[in-house]
User: What shape does this take?
Amino acid sequence: MKRFAVVLSLLLVLSTALAGCGGSSGSSSNPSSGSNTTTPPATSGQSSGSTSGQTQTASGPSGSIMIYTSIYPDIINLVSPELEKAFPNLKVEWFQGGTEQVTAKMAAEIEAGKIGADLLMVADPSYYVYLKNRDLLMSYKSENFDAVAVDKDTEGYAYTGVRISNVVIGYNTNLVKPEEAPKTFRELTDPKWKDQVVIVDPTLSGTALVSTYALSEKYGWEYFEQLRDNGAVIGGGNSSTETKLVTGEFKVAVILEENLLKVKDRGEPVDIVYPEDGVIIVPSPIGILKTTQNAEAAKAVVDWWLSPEGQKAIVTGWMHSVRTDVESPKGAQPLASFAPGAMKVNWEDLAARSGEVKDKFVEIMGTK
Amino acid sequence: MRFNFDAKSVAIALAVAVLLVFGIFPIALLVIDAFIVDGHFSLDNFREVYVNKSNLMAVWNTVKASGLTMLFSTAISFPLAWLVGRTDLPFKNVFRTLIITPYMIPPFIGAFAWGYLANPRIGYLNQWIRAVFPFFEQGPINIYSMNGMVWVLVLFYFPFSFLSISRALEKMDPSLEEAARISGAGPLRVLRNITIPLTAPAIAAGALLVFVAVASAFGIPSIIGGQARIQVVTTRIISYVYVGTTEAMHEATALAVVLLMLSIAVLWFSNWYLAKREYFTLAGKSTRPTLVELGPWKWPLVAVFAIVCFVFAILPIMALVMTSLVKTMGRGFAFDNLTLDVWRSVLADDATWRTLRTSLYSSVLAATGGTLVGLLIAYLKVKTRMRFRTIPDFLATFTNATPGIVLALGLILAFSGKFGLNLYGTFWILVVAYFVRHLSYAVRQAAAALEQVHPSLEEAALSSGASWLRLFKDVTIPLVGPSVVGGWFLVFMPSFYELTMSVLLYSSKATPAGYHLYHLSSYASPQSAAVLSVLILILVLIGNLLMRWASRGRVSL
Assistant: This one.
């Protein structure tokens, strides 16, 4: 028993030591830190008279606000201090996950009648159409609305594009010479690329869902059958697909431009092809949930994201800005150079058929 | 006597109530929802889901993968457990720890590790093999296949059956074996006619755990199976869930029902099988099994065991460590491409320690609660004659067989405050999720131990006037203690690195390490994820060693 006492005290020491580690650096830059703030979380009291969140003082909105998002955590780290500066009285909380995880969480919350998010920033625009059709989004025309140059809801103002991701072709420069790299998505069904192509799973990634839809609309589902017969493989989400390209397990990947820009900057042997048959442009929106308890703050934060400052953070995170007065991310081609030839996507149609698209993809790619 | 009965009933009733409220209620909510389309009872969701060819294929793949994994796991567990528990094999304690190390590696990290090791093109193993035998153009090992997937599944799930069997072997009353030996039976005959039949309940319990765990596993099938074009039920369920609509959520639940049915079938079979025999091997006499002398076989077997340990434990850890040290993944493992920067940045990151702390607290609570409730439920099943006594055990298996993601959705539905209790968005939802999901490990472990305790010991205590609480505290718990602590670890470890549920249930106030690991692997780099998983592994190993030291070797995994 004595020995157990020793172990127990060791555990105690250990946990206090861990606590020390957590507190010592004290930087509040991390999205999930901030446990020591005194402001009550937005999610806690739907029923109680929620006047606290809506008081607006001279120094901007106060209270707290919860953002559900699929943007990468490093961008959250980047914008958190900026948001703190812009809204000193507002506590901004984040839930971060892949688009599909966020939407799954939302589905359960809608069912439970308690949506935790005030603001939503996920990748797939068709999901906003779905939410709008269910009357869950608040209509809000931002002061920066007119500066936004991409897809936005010009009828109901339920959502606005806030960042642009592009699905492109990446290749491993150790294994493929630039002049030999594939020029089009179509070319990936060529025997030249037999067993060398890795693609992202649309059941895991919102942007891959969009690209799967766009390619199947343009070339028909035969395109995916041909890809499969040519030995193309599903690499999981964008990150694990990125790893398979970087390590040279596959020579070519259909993947997000931002992943390629990031690892290329890190010194990994990859480069980007903007396919001639059309880059797939995904203008990911931002929208306010109708159930928000702090609409003032939510609107102010939307304005901030669409402002040049907010957009610069987006570009630092390797995505393109929705404004024309903010330049492209480092190493990327300007949006204007490939936007005219981009593939067309009907978001309404995709919103109605997303389940079907995923099913069809799994049916084709999931069989030998 | 009346009071004794009451204390017992109250304790057991409380345990069952906890299981019902936190485990069954959320799942029931979801399942009921699946039967309702537009406000009316309907089987449309089920029709939709079970007509789909991909789903039927997935069901078959799940049965196949789980069945094969169960068979292979049992086949390797018994000889290994026997060698470690009943022979004079040198270094057996080291082997014992090494062999179950995979259980301490998060399965999805393990799947990545095996991907690095054995992908046909640039896997480390395949490169080495090709360096020695240049005539292989590709491969020869392809981890992205059904065989590869079963291989990885066996590696990560066989510890269930190994632990179950080795516990039984160590606890077995040796007098039966001695009697057989004295009557002239050879060691093999003793093994076949005495040891194996006596450990049959433990073998069956272990096999059941493996089957159910594999059928509800998601990490390995999604990473290995995805690329091999093998869909299983869990990956299909996730596809539905990730469609993100309420309708798709109902379809996901409808599909999850098949997993629940599978586990019911396996559980029913094992209850039926075990009900035919009665086992009491731990009586109140000295029980120190005589060790079989291996003689000339000793060193060859050490060599075999060493190779097995190397492949099971060392190789994947090596792959992780190697990954954690490279500068750019594009150039692989070369001496001018090594760096400690990733280690430095992960260790210096505030989030690393904060999330580890959250995981430590939540999984200690989940494991402690699970052990207590599990012990009572096992006691109810094994040691009482109450009606419906096996049902709580069955329900615990049921929550374990429910895919983590479905359980997490149920918990959101049930504990958002709609039914009075508001845990969602707090630290406690994690504790509840881990507890409910892993409870059955504690129940199984305790039940297997209790099954071996002869009633004579408790009868002796009761007839000497001890109350039930006293009996439970002074006789039952000490007798099954080591097994129960083993069960604690079985709950603790998967909770410590739990990923699937954490991803949906974490909040800014309580972010567990499993979520952080997922986040590193998807957004930072494979290197930093490798660092965190090595870190988790080290912490768990230290915990295990401390446990062993504190209990003077009686308690360990």
